[in-house]
Amino acid sequence: MSDHTTFTNIVQASETLAARWSKLAQKAIADARAQGVTIEPEDVLNLREVRNATLGAELDQEAYQRELLALPALSDVARKKAIAEGNEDARAATVAELNRITADAPAGRRTDAAARKMSRARDMGVASVPVTAEDRDEKLRMLQDVDDHQTRLRLARKWELL
User: Fold this and answer.
1) 3-class DSSP state for residue 51?
2) CB atoms within 10 A of CB 1
3) Is 83 exposed, middle or buried (0-12, 13-18, 19+ CB in 10 A)?
């Protein structure tokens, strides 16, 4: 996030700019709401096109929409929608993001990371996340530590290793 102090000081110093900012911020908030997401005026400060339009430039609708959809709250909504529509690029990008959750986790926190990964996969509409070789190897290592044969077999089935 950037510090927008200078911009806000300029806007507050002029009634015209303040009125223009208010109108554009309300538009951005309404456009986000139409996508099913609530954003705050502080989030609108991150939209360069809105800041430029507040200062008098023409609002480039295409760039504005691109920036709006790139806000963290809206990018998830847009990606979920693309996945639901069958967009394989969006699904692949989401799966890559999900795989980084476990790959970046410290060895002692892999189980927690796997749970976060599955929760995020459900939230994003990815029915199942392909198991990476690292995940499979980690599960096999964990199974080696289980002494009870029945428990080991039950876990292997649960983790789809059999």
Assistant:
1) helix
2) 7
3) buried
Task: Find the distance separating the first CA and the last CA of the chain, reported in whole Å.
Answer: 46
Sign of the CA dihedral 51, 53, 54, 55?
A: positive
How far apart are the C-alpha atoms of 143 and 155, rounded to whole Å? 8
Compute φ and ψ for 31, nearest 5 degrees.
Answer: -65, -40
* 28 in Cβ contact with 34 (< 8 Å): no
| Other Cβ atoms within 10 Å of 95 Cβ, number | 18
pTM beyond 0.70? no
Distances (CA, A) of 9 to 5, 6, 92, 110, 112: 6, 5, 43, 46, 44
Per-residue pLDDT of the chain (162 residues; tens, 9 = 90+): 467 889 999 999 999 999 999 999 999 999 888 877 788 888 899 999 999 999 999 999 999 988 888 887 777 777 888 888 888 887 888 888 888 887 787 877 878 888 888 888 887 888 665 567 777 888 888 888 888 888 888 888 877 777
